[in-house]
Amino acid sequence: MYDFGYLKEITDHDQELMQQVVDEFLLLCEESTAAFSHASSAQDPALLYNFAHKIKPNLVMLGVPKSLVQEVVYLEASGKAATWTEELQARIEQVISLLQVLRRELASATL
């Protein structure tokens, strides 16, 4: 569910730096899933936008599937537009689930 190719390129294959980036992402991922969950239950578009915007470049850097990045872009746009629909609720739950899987995989990844 990830590809370290781009991360290796931008860190010049520096294992220590790559591990630091992954560790920071793991924290951001945990923080983001909690924020998305809260945003969903509170129907808080500003919180949704802020965390979608914050995590998006990290997902790209870690080479996650474009489908996940596109879902986060959708959350970001919906939060910015302050629109709330049942579809948005479902997509938030889907992103939370995918981020949890990604977090588990990255926690045990070998760089």
TrEMBL record:
GO terms for biological process: phosphorelay signal transduction system. SUPFAM superfamilies: Histidine-containing phosphotransfer domain, HPT domain. InterPro entries: HPT_dom_sf. It comes from the Bacteria. This is HPt domain-containing protein. It comes from Nitritalea halalkaliphila LW7.
